[in-house]
Amino acid sequence: MSLAFLVTTLVVVVTPGTGVVHTLAATLSHGRRAGTVAAFACTLGIVPHVLATVTGLAALLNASAAAFQAVKYAGVAYLLYMAWATLRGKEGITVEQDGAPATAPQAIVRGVLINLLNPKLTIFFFAFLPQFVSPDGPHALLRMLGLSGVFMLLTFVVFALYGVLAASVRDHVISRPKVMAWLRRSFAGSFLALGAKLACTAR
User: Fold this and answer.
1) Model pTM?
2) How far is 5 from 15, CA to CA, in rounded Å?
3) Is position 6 within any domain?
4) Is 45 within the bounds of a domain?
5) Chain centroid, CA 171 distance in Å
């Protein structure tokens, strides 16, 4: 495993995106455990993109404008829904002292969808992983899966750390209604902005 791979992966993972926003919202809403579940769910959402890459489905998304647009706008629609739900205090994104997500499966599904409905992640893996795997080398597929596993592990660790940081200020947040209202608007705006960004991206 090269240093270039680790540095590039860290830069990609640390840069705030939909997964980070979702993890922060879940943590501030329901505490550290909910944030950890959200981080795990967002990481789990990477698996389909890895499978798409190693099986060649990413090439289809890259070659077919219709397929790419279909996945992209499904992702945009979901991000817009998350913005609306956050602003309205639905989907468990309401900061409460003793609140808890409705169920762990619901929280996991929500987090998985955040990353699953993002075709740019598949294209990223399609362009990123082959740079560090020689197609003529032995066990190229296993190496690609191994590097994908490292990417997912770093994703979970970084997202979980974001959750820990959010949990450390949660007590200060839940005692201030104006701060809670500002956070709801900020998270809603973040989901809206990320949805608009995804809508404007090309293959």
Assistant:
1) 0.70
2) 16
3) no
4) yes
5) 25
